[in-house]
Amino acid sequence: MTAPGRAPGHLRLGVNIDHVATIRNARGGDHPCPIRAAHAAAAAGADGITAHLREDRRHMTDADIARLVREIALPLNLEMAATHEMLAIALANRPHAACIVPERRAERTTEGGLDAAGQFNTLKPLVERLGEAGIRVSLFVAPEVRQIEAAARLGAPVIELHTGPYAHSDGSVDELCRLREAAALAAGLGLEVHAGHGLGFANVGAVAAIPELAELNIGHFLIGEAVFTGLAAAIREMRARMDAGRAGLAA
Ligand code: PXP
């Protein structure tokens, strides 16, 4: 689906605001406010807002999610673990989209992709319940044939490809090829394809150039860069690099 006013083939930018909440929570007050960051991201050209309600609530809180759904005009993509608790929260809040991610309490961030193949029977009812509620489900998976085929069999309309291994590889051509082949396979199976994790100014162009991608979700780098340039400038620069990558101008 192309957002109103966007050209067909527009690569959407979802801004992940989790780490605004990380900074807020470091002092336990209400500054900086992630909802204010979502409004600022919208004004700077973001196409969507992404927020991960972790089981340990280390950054976003239940109240943040409720406010984001109520108060922002952009679609909210709720990242969530495949648990009954998170399903109930998603159904109560009805975000535009829900991206199911693996979650381990000891991890610093989402470290691997979801095992869509191995957890097929757990994921199937979850994907169905979210879909029946009109929430667009995406599964965060590694660029692997087995996982992508399982996502399609699960009936999820969207997958998000894990770009972490590419992002941390210092530009590995093999990792980029894995992403390209995975995106082509997924699109061929009728899935909408998103990508994210570890993206920044240096690597976003090559990923944006993958023609099947419809959306990138980017958080940590943007919030970190905002310390130096402000959030709006960081988002505008990311947007420019995505557009250059799409236009084949990436270095
Ligand atoms: N996509 C998914 C599914 C994620 O879990 C994350 C991290 O929360 C991101 C994208 C954004 O990753 P980063 O913060 O490294 O840009």
- The N- and C-terminal alpha carbons lie at a distance of 29 Å
**Strand portion, in percent?**
15-25%
CATH H-level superfamily = Aldolase class I
CATH class: Alpha Beta
- What structural category do the secondary elements indicate? alpha/beta
Number of domains: 1
Question: How can the largest sheet be summarized?
Answer: 8 strands, parallel, barrel
Main sheet: which strands, in order across?
A: 1-2-3-4-5-6-7-8
The CATH architecture is: Alpha-Beta Barrel
The unique ligands bound to this protein are: pyridoxine-5'-phosphate
Count of discrete alpha- or pi-helical segments spanning 4 or more residues: 11
CATH topology: TIM Barrel
Question: What percent of the residues sit in helical stretches (DSSP H or I)?
Answer: 40-55%
Explain what this protein looks like in three dimensions.
With 251 residues, the protein is of the alpha/beta class. It has a single domain (33-250), classed as Aldolase class I (TIM Barrel, Alpha-Beta Barrel), CATH 3.20.20.70. Helix content is 45%, strand content 16%. It has eleven helices and eight strands. Strands 1-2-3-4-5-6-7-8 form an eight-stranded parallel beta barrel, surrounded by seven helices. α6 (145-154) links the parallel β5 (136-141) and β6 (158-162). The longest helix has 16 residues, at 173-188. It is globular and about 45 Å long. The relative contact order is 0.14. The model has no long low-confidence stretch (mean pLDDT 94). The structure holds pyridoxine-5'-phosphate (PXP). Pyridoxine-5'-phosphate binds at residues 16, 18, 52, 79, 99, 101, 109-110, 140, 160, 196-199, 217-221.
